[in-house]
Amino acid sequence: MSATAAHRPVATPPRLWRPPRALVLRAPGTNCDRETALALELAGAQPERIHLDAVLAGERSLAEFALLVFPGGFSFGDHLGAGTLWAHKLDALREPLDRFVASGRPVLGICNGFQALLKLGLLRGGALGPNANGRFECRWVWLRRPQAAATPLLAGIERIALPIAHGEGRFVAEHPPALDDLQRRGNVALVYDGADDGAGDGLADRPASPPYPANPNGSAGAVAALANVGGNVLGLMPHPERNVLPGQAPAGRPDGAGLAIFRNAVAMARG
Questions:
Q1: CATH of the domain at 95
Q2: Is residue 13 part of a domain?
Q3: One of 32, 35, 168, 239 is an active-site residue; which one?
Q4: Is 241 a catalytic residue?
Q5: Is the pTM of this model over 0.85?
Q6: Is residue 11, in this structure, part of any structural domain at all?
Q7: Within-domain flag for 153
Q8: Is-cis flag, bond preceding 152, omega within 30?
Q9: Domain range enclosing 24
Q10: In a domain, 6, yes or no
Q11: Considering 32, 35, 111, 168, which one is annotated as catalytic?
Q12: d(CA 231, CA 217)
């Protein structure tokens, strides 16, 4: 080999793009982790479904991931209340969870995950109680993003149709002024919408808090989702992971609309 060839600079290979790693943290009784992982993969993330016990034992760490999702289900059989025991277990991870949120990385809590986030205190302002009609509600609903809602996790979304499946989804504010504060600060991320036709006109004429069945659980202010002040933590009762593929939505509702939420989360995780 000639001296010239020996000292010829070697071209640096192009840096391969890597999808952000997403943790789907499951617990006993979680039953939506597989479809949540699929939604994240479709949105461009590299998801892993990991049991809470593996994180509590130190076998895995939140620091490995750029995105965290608490999926739906009936964690610990909803004993002592929906999400209560999950939140109690998660309290042992308080410091790493606080660091994760403070770093600006996105966190999603879906249905049972939302219930756990509220009881853990990562979202504040109220609680989720039994549905006002005392029944389990399992159907599709229309949702609207209030103008004040500022979370990037709902960027580009004005109205969306998603399925619900819960018996404890009625939002109750800590006290009457708390709901006003949440609305004013933009913490109310989604509300149940009174119209069932998907039309975008006439929003101003619709009731701020529609009655049943549009408001399926009797939530104060028709609250369906909350975000933290930083906008990187979103908890919602509807299931976006159940509307990410063609054919999942019934007639008259856009197919795959829930994927937008996961794409926003992945975009935030990329930074």
A1: 3.40.50.880
A2: no
A3: 239
A4: yes
A5: yes
A6: no
A7: yes
A8: no
A9: 18-270
A10: no
A11: 111
A12: 25
